[in-house]
Design a protein that fits this description.
Length: 404
């Protein structure tokens, strides 16, 4: 399939940005701004297009490990200042590096996310210094520090403030070569004007090399698998939810003897179905009690965010439907649109049924997962009342009855 990995990343990056907003109180577009500045620096170095392309992906993904909720549980309570919590944790570097290990980069970069908080003078989390640190890590560290710096300087990108930030980077964070580039950039007003929320996206698009290539669906699956892990790691309540749904979607595709291509598309839809949950604060996702009506309204938005993230990706039209319809019900009582049976194709119905089955059978910290027969009983009752597809429920019973 003709596909641009970075177009995909830019499309879903707002979901990652939400994690930073939730965790760090960052403003929106943090990932895009960090990627844009990374590319402004990378473009001034003698790098190949492939290296620049990977630098874009790595900078968008640099803080993907932040969604790991257990990191925050381990930090002392008194560290309630968002940036202190963030800087105080090397865990997000380790988890972030691990999450992207299957990502199909063009240049096999190693350790870039792991070392994105290292400093040239050796005062980073891991104590690497100078040329021991991957170049792209140092660039991302500088770009990332811009966001922190200006958040507290009130987002005023005046020449004087930009120079202040460049000097702060020069004092140990970056190499003399990068410091010289930052000084050059400080004199180029267009760099700073492009950072506003309404200009950042086209500015970033213009800097990313366009490699639209024939990408096999199994490679795209490697990327969506990364996102599935990021989503699952956001909340300890649903630690295996997307992974479990993808496995079950693959099993049902086999049951229905679907071809390789449709199977891969179904699995990709399962990987991404709850992507929008990245935009729901953990303070709501992690409450071990029934949600208040207001909280439930917020949680319901996740499917809408899933749709918004996926619908502009060329070639993902059917995947978007199957992923974003998973809470719609045949009787029109689902969300977000209240679609009815005649608006839901077979794979959307299948995803809806499987999502319920997966949720019922998985263990949560506050309850054991249901046995297969109990879960089928719940699904059958829902089918009787017109919520989910009755024949698909029977097929799920057949397909999983003896294996679970
Ligand atoms: Fe970070
Ligand atoms: Fe960051
Ligand atoms: Fe969902
Ligand atoms: Fe789900």
């Amino acid at each position: 399939m003709q596909f641009s990995l970075n177009d995909f990343l830019i499309a879903v990056s707002f979901a990652l940005d939400f994690v930073e907003m939730d965790r760090l109180g960052m403003q929106s577009n943090h990932g895009k701004r960090t990627a844009y500045l990374t590319l402004c620096i990378a473009r001034r170095l003698d790098l190949s297009e492939e290296e620049v392309y990977d630098a874009a992906a790595l900078s968008i993904l640099h803080d993907n490990g932040l969604s790991e909720s257990s990191l925050y549980e381990q930090l002392p309570q008194e560290w309630n200042h968002a940036v202190t919590r963030f800087e105080g944790s090397r865990g997000h570097c380790v988890i972030g590096e691990k999450n992207v290990k299957d990502y199909p980069f063009l240049t096999e970069p190693e350790g870039v996310i792991l070392y994105h908080h290292e400093r040239y003078d050796g005062n980073g989390f891991f104590g690497l210094k100078g040329d021991e640190i991957p170049l792209i890590s140092l660039i991302i560290a500088a770009a990332d520090s811009f966001e922190n710096y200006f958040k507290y300087a009130g987002g005023d990108y005046s020449h004087e403030k930009v120079l202040e930030w460049v000097n702060s980077c020069e004092a140990g964070m970056v190499s003399p070569q990068l410091a010289a580039i930052l000084h050059q950039m400080a004199e180029d007003q267009s760099v700073w004007e492009n950072l506003s929320n309404d200009r950042i996206e086209p500015a970033l698009d213009a800097l990313v090399p366009s490699f639209e290539m024939e990408v096999p669906l199994d490679k795209i699956r490697q990327v969506t698998g990364v996102f599935s892990r990021i989503v699952d790691s956001k909340s300890s309540f649903t630690r295996r939810h997307s992974k479990g749904l993808a496995e079950k979607a693959a099993r049902m595709a086999e049951y229905y003897k679907k071809g390789q291509e449709e199977t891969a598309r179904l699995v990709i839809a399962a990987d991404l179905h709850d992507l929008g949950k990245l935009a729901v604060p953990n303070s709501i996702l992690d409450v071990p009690r029934a949600l208040t009506p207001e909280e439930f309204e917020t949680v319901k938005r996740h499917v809408y965010y899933t749709r918004v993230a996926l619908e502009n990706i060329r070639g993902f039209e059917d995947i978007t439907e199957w992923a974003a319809n998973h809470h719609e019900k045949l009787n029109g009582k689902g969300y977000p649109f209240g679609k009815t049976g005649d608006e839901l194709d077979f794979n959307s119905r299948l995803m809806g049924c499987l999502d319920v089955y997966q949720a019922l059978t998985e263990d949560r910290p506050y309850r054991k997962g249901m046995a297969h027969s109990q879960a089928i009983k719940v699904l059958s009752d829902m089918a009787k009342n017109g919520f989910v597809d009755n024949s698909i429920t029977k097929d799920i019973d057949q397909a999983f009855g003896f294996v679970i």
